[in-house]
Amino acid sequence: MKIEVGAYEAKTKLPQLLRGVQVGKRYTITNRGVAIADLVPAEGAKRHEAAAAVAQMKVFMAKNALPGWDIKKLIEEGRA
């Protein structure tokens, strides 16, 4: 969901808007009611978050591995 913000308000509240972007909010900046720009999270930030999530998943899987279970075999059995 994008939130519309006037250009003057965006200028005066930029730090607050940037904090919102950090938590995933998206803003459309308008000038006299006409959309002129979008303020959205950077693509690099998304890649970094995805890489961190994969690393956390690998750590979780290593800590919670069940000895003697073959995950690929279980997946194949589920498809049958």
Q: Which class of secondary structure composition applies to the elements?
A: alpha+beta
Please list the strands of the largest sheet in the order they lie side by side: 1-2-3
The DSSP helix count reads 4
What share of the residues lie within helices? 55-70%
- N-to-C SSE string, H for helix and E for strand: EHHEEHH
N-C termini distance: 40 Å
Quick structural overview:
This protein is of the alpha+beta class.
Describe the structure.
The protein has 80 residues and is of the alpha+beta class. 56% of the residues lie in helices and 21% in strands. The chain has four helices and three strands; from the N terminus they run βααββαα. It has helices at residues 7-12, 14-22, 43-63, 71-79; strands spanning 2-6, 26-31, 34-39. Strands 1-2-3 form a three-stranded mixed β-sheet. The longest helix is centred in the middle third of the chain and has 21 residues, at 43-63. The mean pLDDT is 88.
Structure keywords:
80 residues; 4 helices; 56% helix
Fold blueprint:
Elements (H helix, E strand, L loop, with lengths): L1 E5 H6 L1 H9 L3 E6 L2 E6 L3 H21 L7 H9 L1
Parallel strand pairs: 1-2
Antiparallel strand pairs: 2-3
